[in-house]
């Protein structure tokens, strides 16, 4: 997965849809990246962090992403549930669960 801070939605490519068994709707959803189908991942986890159910877009990413051999994009809809810290000297991205206060 590629972390994309500019993407509004999380996108998975079709082979991931098949591997995970995501059911998708028939109506196309337009995005700045192209046309996709809306699907739901029942129990998604980022590393060991459970995020529960998440609606995702499923479809082929533009060719610019092809050279990276990625399975999708983590968009803002997923990133807003996570705490992210970049450790530049160590070249690490630390991901934690965001605590939501009442």
Sum up the structure in keywords.
102 residues, mainly beta, Cathepsin D, subunit A, domain 1, 2 helices, globular
Description:
The structure is a single chain. This protein has 102 residues and is mainly beta. The chain has one domain: Cathepsin D, subunit A, domain 1 (Beta Barrel). Helices cover 11% and strands 49% of the residues. The strands form 2 sheets. A 6-stranded mixed β-sheet has the order 1-6-2-5-4-3. A hairpin with a 2-residue loop joins strand 3 and strand 4. The termini are far apart. The mean pLDDT is 87.
What is the secondary structure topology, with strand pairs?
Elements: E1 2-3, E2 11-12, H1 14-20, E3 24-31, E4 34-46, E5 49-58, E6 72-74, H2 76-79, E7 82-87, E8 92-97
Parallel strand pairs: 1-6, 2-5
Antiparallel strand pairs: 2-6, 3-4, 4-5, 7-8
Q: Which residues sit in consecutive blocks of at least 5 with pLDDT less than 50? A: none
Q: What is the first-to-last residue Cα distance?
A: 31 Å
Q: Considering DSSP H and I runs of 4 or more, what fraction of the residues is helical?
A: 10-25%
Count of extended strands = 8
* Percent of sequence in beta strands: over 45%
Instruction: Name the average pLDDT.
Output: 87
CATH level-two architecture: Beta Barrel
Main sheet record? 6 strands, mixed
The CATH superfamily turns out to be Acid Proteases
CATH fold node name: Cathepsin D, subunit A, domain 1
The CATH C-level name is Mainly Beta
| SSE-based structural type | mainly beta
Q: Strand order across the biggest sheet?
A: 1-6-2-5-4-3
How many domains, in number, for the residues? 1
């Amino acid at each position: 997965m590629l972390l994309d801070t500019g993407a509004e939605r999380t996108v998975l490519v079709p082979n991931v849809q098949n591997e995970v068994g995501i059911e998708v709707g028939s109506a196309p959803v337009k995005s700045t990246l192209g046309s996709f189908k809306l699907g739901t991942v029942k129990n998604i986890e980022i590393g060991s962090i459970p995020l529960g159910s998440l609606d995702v877009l499923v479809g082929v990413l533009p060719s610019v992403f092809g050279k990276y051999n990625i399975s999708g994009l983590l968009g803002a809809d997923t990133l807003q549930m996570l705490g992210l810290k970049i450790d530049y000297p160590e070249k690490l991205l630390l991901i934690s669960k965001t605590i939501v206060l009442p």
